Amino acid sequence: MGSAWAMTACSSIERQETEETEKLLAAAGFKMKMPDSPTKLAQLQAMKQEKILSRTKDGTIYFLYADAKDCGCLYVGNQANYDAYQKLSVQREIAVADQEAALDAEASPDMDWGAWGYGNPGW
């Protein structure tokens, strides 16, 4: 039972991370493409999933993000889109870190560390 719960929790976290990535890709200007033929669907499924890949076509670099499992789509962007995605990703990481620091600060000032057998949180 414990391992089933852990697998569900991990799956939920992975899905949330995928959703966040896809929101950032869309905000950065990546275009979501749906496979409109069996050939495109097979290509989408064969690609490395949920990772940003770069490909060059006719001298232009394109960035691809395949999600065959959840949205069944391919995100496609150019260098400017990728640069915008990187910037948004860093901003999100900073916001999450700030939020976690604020939650930590809220949680620990009144904690009775002596109850845990320690005089202070600097053990």
Account of the 3D structure:
The protein has a domain at 21-106. 52% of the residues lie in helices and 18% in strands. The protein has helices at 2-27, 38-46, 79-107, and strands at residues 31-33, 52-57, 60-67, 73-77. Strands 1-4-3-2 form a four-stranded antiparallel beta sheet. Helix 1 packs across helix 3 (79-107). The longest helix is centred in the C-terminal third of the chain and has 29 residues, at 79-107.
Compact description:
This protein is α+β, with helices and mostly antiparallel strands and 123 residues long. 52% of the residues lie in helices and 18% in strands.
- Tell me, what's the shape? elongated
Question: Mean pLDDT across all residues, rounded?
Answer: 86
**Rg (CA only):** 21 Å
Could you tell me the number of beta strands?
4
Terminal-residue CA separation: 35 Å
Poorly predicted segments: none
